[in-house]
Amino acid sequence: MDTMQADVTASLPSAPSLDQLTRTLSEISADSLRALDKTTEGSNRSTDAIRRISEQRRKPR
Hints:
By secondary structure, the chain is mostly helical.
């Protein structure tokens, strides 16, 4: 029984270290912040475009 348990345990992948998990979380967080920045940038550009179109339509022709 002990041999079987040792074989099963040996075949399992090792758990990541705390440093590895922290690095991965930091990378995910950085990626998320970059994505949020790009989303905000796109939203601002869209808002500016809508504002310009609205101003053009308000001007008398």
